[in-house]
Amino acid sequence: MFKFDFGIEDDGTEPLQAETAPPEVLQSEPFAELSLSQLLESLPPLISYSPLLIPLSSSRKSVTLARRDLFDARFQLISEGHGDEPPVDTPAPTSTSALGFLDAPSDLVPGVYEGGLKTWECSLDLVGYLDSFRDADSSYFSGKRVLEVGCGTGIPSVYLLSYLFSENSNVNAHVHMQDYNASVLELITFPNIILAWYMSPSSAAYRAAAADEECPPGDPTIPGELTITPALKSAFTASIAKLGISLAFFSGPWEGLTTYLKSSVETKHDLVLTSETIYRTEALPALIQLLHQACADAQSRPLCLVAAKVLYFGVGGGVSEFVRALRSKDMVDKGSSGTAESVWERKVGVGRKIMRIDWV
Question: Where do the segments described as Disordered lie (predicted)?
Answer without folding.
Answer: 1-21
